[in-house]
UniProtKB/TrEMBL annotation:
InterPro entries (alphabetical): ATPase_NBD, Cell_div_FtsA, FtsA/MreB, SHS2_FtsA
Family: Belongs to the FtsA/MreB family.
PANTHER family: CELL DIVISION PROTEIN FTSA (PTHR32432:SF4), CELL DIVISION PROTEIN FTSA-RELATED (PTHR32432)
Organism name: Seonamhaeicola sediminis
Domain of life: Bacteria
Protein location: Cell membrane
Membrane found in the keyword field: yes
Protein name (record): Cell division protein FtsA
Region (Disordered): 390-415
Domain (SHS2): residue spans on this chain: 6-194
Record's GO cellular component terms: cell division site; cytoplasmic side of plasma membrane
SUPFAM superfamilies: Actin-like ATPase domain
Amino acid sequence: MEHNLSVGLDIGTTKIVAMIGRKNEFGKLEILGIGKSKSLGVHRGVVNNITQTIQSIQQAVQEAEAAADIKIEDVTVGIAGQHIRSLQHSDYITRPNSETVIDDDDIDRLVNQVHKLVMLPGEEIIHVLPQEYKVDGQAEIKEPIGMYGGRLEANFHVVVGQVSSIRNIGRCVQSAGLNLEGITLEPLASANAVLSQEEKEAGVALIDIGGGTTDLAIFRDGIIRHTAVIPFGGNVITEDIKEGCSIIEKQAELLKIKFGSAWPGENKDNEIVSIPGLRGREPKEITLKNLSKIIHARVVEIVEQVYVEIKNYGHEEQKKKLIAGIVLTGGGSQLKHLKQLVEYITGMDTRIGYPNEHLAGDSDEDITSPLFATAVGLVLDGLKRQERKKVEAQAEQITEENQPETIKEEPKKERRSFLDKLTDRVKDFLDNAE
């Protein structure tokens, strides 16, 4: 596969998307091919049928390969699902010599210490995100490297998930004949695709409403402050319509997409949709007012749960206010009048997030749909990872060429993110498990 190409694989509850992209000469993302298949083996973001998931992945990948006329080998995969939770934690280290400046190694030591936290059985730390540092009691330091100090403290946002679920995703990708290039947290991928830097600085909550789960990522001062996965999404709305109107799932999904609205007030009492009955039975008549009441009840529940998480982060405190409000993305964000409902419940400014922040201007309208926010984010992530590797390789080369034999300095290596380490661990596990 060419070097400047990247493939994002979004394994969702309702659909699996494979997306091939590359940077064009203006540094924007150009999508070369996209493949989409119905996801059959995933429930609430967690794989529960390996064989079906492998087939769905292969189908999406083949479609993308055919569209772009490129053979896919490496993919960047997103993880989400109801097993992801996050916590706040602070930790400190005492430095042996306070007369030297704080460097990368000190921060690595501090971060590794967080990794020793005891988790529930089967859980593992996926992500450790430093929020702010303290050096010798001096607070609110963004970047302690280069400062003097004996005691280095930090607040961390720690994301935890179940190892087995992550390994299962790795297993599916490998069995589909692909190479796992990287693993990324899906709320972070979606955020990269739809949020602008200004929004992340001002404070913003990204709500990604998928089929099986709703992901939340909160940014402030450009740093991720809080993440959560709520185990409800568009599928429960469809389920409610199916039960409430006694129709089959396919019809319920179509009704939701075509006539659904999150705001019951706007439908008149006499607006009726007729649905063909099953084999020889009478057609059913459903009033749109009833339909939107069913949808409204469930959407309110989802939004309120998300709002609880935003409050848990501390949105009500002056210092933690989210000035840019809320951005809604994911397939579920296309529901009519959802924006107004979210504004009504939370009192925060809301917009729908389209993943066009980094896309080339002539991209297809389909690709800029909120449906593909996570996939676009994963492609971006894969490209970033490749650039990092390139920089590291060049640094090593330069060092080897320019140094006389006696003094070989270590090239300055960029700190590897936990997800890179996690990817390596999952790969090792899969290689040794066969």
